[in-house]
Write a structure and sequence with these properties.
The complex is a heterodimer of chains A (334) and B (337). Chain A is an all-alpha fold. Chain A is built from 14 helices and no strands. In chain A, helix 3 packs parallel to helix 8, helix 3 runs antiparallel to helix 13 and helix 7 crosses helix 11. The two termini of chain A are 25 Å apart. In chain B, helix 2 packs across helix 10, helix 3 packs parallel to helix 4 and helix 7 packs across helix 8. The chains are: A mainly alpha (334), B alpha/beta (337).
Chain lengths: 334, 337
């Protein structure tokens, strides 16, 4: 019995190592940001920085769960766009705003259910299915709104997108991120559902045999993802007072980059929400600090790309190095 | 009526220089030095925007200000917002923006204005409450009328011609075509006849086929006007390899880089477009004047725009660059965009 226990503690220790590394990177980026610009730590700037990654964070929360379960959802940004377009259309039909919001959230959930059903019922890889629905939902967004934009949302709602909480620097929509982060952290790390995701990600067949309803779990995951993407679509629309079919184009890659940099294994079964939250903040800090220092957007893209690559490469190299060392030790012992 | 084709480069330049010498003293005195002016294009590295931004930077240099160009690498509706926020944090004196979305940036530009930062839009406007001045390339009327004036000169004032437009519901093109038809009503064009408006849908292949169709359907066709950069290039490409080359005039709106080969091989004698460099140049002067307090952006305000001379703010804060530039074999090599 000692063996599996120690194996578990090894993975946990590796998580802690990655999280500790992220924490160090965060501190370094904060210091670098302060050195690059004295304005970096001003309240207004922190406010902008937090607001900038609201949508990415909202979508990254369920994406973490999905990737832990060794699946992926590439359609999230398109669901965001379609939700934004739908929000505009429903508002123009004269529906009251609270009803519009409820309907858009329902749409997102249904879009996620659709993804989940196709994946589960036909046993297809989520990568292939959600590439398809990435195009499908984006197409739907353009069907709904064409190339026009709807911008006449009520001021009380758009104020939610732009204002901060009281006199603090905390942007209103960021409250949703904080609430979501708490909920998703608990779900992933302290519930049977969350633990079942790690089991599914590590070995779906074994998970099935140990009594986990894999199909149902996956359906739930994709519904959550759709609903959160729709919520991000609503926030995005209010923040920019503009419902457009092309809203959020390409966000899926930023989301996945943040999740992987957070230490979640692309092969599933490993990862922690704390890591992803740290990674979101680091990417936000870096982007903001570099922009403030007038670093060009191309360089920003390169930095983000390098981060992602290192998050995939470093654990892999470390694992290889460890395996090689163990092999050497074994050889010596023999 | 000033005919743009009659004054392509030389005289206009001379006039501008003259205006500049008059203006320089006035502007040097009125514009504060060391103004921080940031250009925020739709997308960094978009060739058209780069020319415009370069024009703006040149103007800021003349005014002894600190200019810079920042912007997103994608043209998404919201991607300019974090740059606006950063510019506010950096306390720039003015922001000159070509907006990706007429509404998405407005709340943030309003925030900038509420903190005393002046906002000028160019190339692509926002809702009017998002900026103080909009620098427009040219008014639709001048573009539409200018196209007929140029065509008339090229075909000798008589004969059948066709228009090759973008899509049937393209707002810009339809407005220009309306003004072309308005200009045609003048007696001096009585011998010119518009036989058809064809639509190439801004698709290269469709525009190519439409050109072919026009030549077959109207054997006496003397000219094709394509007020769209896709259409004019496709029409020129068809004509350049057909027996109609040299007999059927192709003109319209296009960019020098795209049309250079057809001008050199004689398919196209002349075509038009505004000079994006001048657009950026004018926008920078508008921004500097706002930031110096010499204008507020209300109708009737006027300011000196360096080598472009005096400009006046029109209705709803619009400043117009002026009639489009005409490009021909003599001047096309001076332009790279």
């Amino acid at each position: 019995m000692a063996k599996p226990d120690s194996a578990l503690s090894t993975t946990r220790r590796r998580h802690l190592q990655w999280e500790a590394m992220l924490a160090i990177v965060l501190v370094v980026s904060l210091v670098a940001g302060r050195v690059l610009s004295p304005l970096f730590l001003s309240g207004a700037n922190i406010s902008n920085m937090l607001a900038d990654f609201t949508e990415i964070a909202l979508i990254a929360l369920p994406m973490t769960l999905i990737i832990v379960a060794a699946e992926i959802d590439l359609s999230v940004a398109s669901v965001l766009g379609a939700s934004s377009a739908l929000m505009g259309v429903l508002w123009h039909m004269g529906l009251p705003m609270p009803l519009v919001i409820v309907l858009v959230l329902m749409f997102g959930t249904l879009a996620g259910l659709f993804n989940g059903l196709v994946i589960v019922r036909f046993g297809l890889p989520s990568l292939a299915v959600t590439i398809g629905t990435l195009a499908l939902f984006r197409g739907l967004a353009y069907v709904l709104l064409g190339d026009q934009a709807i911008a006449d949302f009520p001021a009380s709602y758009t104020a939610f997108g732009i204002d901060t909480v009281g006199n603090t620097f905390l942007p209103m929509p960021f409250v949703l991120v904080i609430a979501g982060a708490v909920v998703f952290t608990v779900v992933l790390q302290a519930t049977p559902f969350g633990r079942s995701l790690f089991a599914i990600g590590a070995n779906p067949t074994a998970a099935q045999f140990s009594g986990i309803d894999v199909a149902k779990t996956k359906l739930r995951l994709f519904m959550m993802s759709g609903a959160m993407a729709a919520l991000a679509g609503i926030v995005y629309t209010l923040r920019f007072t503009s419902a457009r079919g092309d809203n959020g184009e390409g966000f899926e890659l930023s989301v996945i980059a943040a999740v992987l940099f957070g230490g979640v294994s692309i092969f599933g079964g490993r990862g922690s929400m704390i890591g992803v939250l740290l990674s979101l903040v680091i990417i936000g800090v870096l982007r903001n600090a570099l922009t403030l220092a007038d670093v060009s957007s191309e360089t920003l893209t390169i930095v983000t790309g390098a981060l992602l690559l290192s998050s995939v490469l470093i654990p892999n190299l470390v694992a290889r190095w460890r395996a090689a060392r163990e092999k050497r030790l074994m050889a010596q012992a023999l | 009526m000033k005919k743009p084709i009659r004054f392509p480069r030389g005289p206009a330049l001379a006039a501008a220089l003259l205006a500049a010498t008059v203006a320089l003293t006035a502007s040097a005195a009125d514009i504060k030095s060391g103004l921080k002016i940031a250009f925020l294009p739709k997308q960094i590295n978009n060739p058209y925007e780069v020319i415009a931004d370069d024009g703006g930077m040149a103007a800021i240099k003349e005014m002894k200000g600190e200019g810079k160009v920042v912007g997103p690498s994608d043209a998404g509706a919201s991607s300019q917002v974090s740059y606006i926020n950063t510019l506010i944090t950096q306390r720039q004196n003015a922001i000159v923006i070509a907006a990706n979305d007429a509404n998405a940036v407005v709340p943030y530009l309003k925030k900038a204005m509420s903190q005393g930062i002046k906002v000028v839009t160019f190339d692509s406007d926002t809702a009017p409450d998002g900026r103080q001045v909009f620098v427009n390339q040219a008014d639709s009327e001048a573009i539409g009328r200018g196209q007929i004036q140029l065509l008339s000169k090229l075909i000798g004032g008589e004969g059948e011609f066709a228009i090759l437009s973008a899509t049937p519901n393209a707002t810009n093109q339809n407005t220009w075509i309306k003004w072309m038809q308005e200009e045609l009503k003048k007696p001096e064009y009585s011998k010119m006849k518009l036989v058809k408006i064809a639509y190439g849908n801004d698709d290269d292949q469709k525009s190519f086929v439409e050109t072919q169709g026009l030549l077959q359907a109207y054997p006496n066709l003397k000219g094709i006007v394509a007020p769209t950069s896709v259409g004019i290039a496709a029409a020129a490409r068809y004509i350049s390899s057909s027996p109609a080359k040299g007999k059927v005039v192709v003109t319209g709106l296009g960019t020098p880089n795209q049309m250079r080969a057809f001008v050199k091989n004689g398919t196209v004698k002349a075509f038009q477009l505004w000079d994006p460099g001048q657009l950026g140049y004018l926008a920078a002067f508008a921004a500097a004047n706002l930031a110096s307090g010499t204008i507020t952006g209300k109708e009737g305000d006027s300011f000196d725009a360096g080598k472009l001379g005096k400009r006046t703010v029109g209705k709803s804060g619009e400043v117009i660059l002026g009639p489009p530039t005409t490009f021909d074999a003599a001047n096309i090599d001076n332009f790279n965009f």
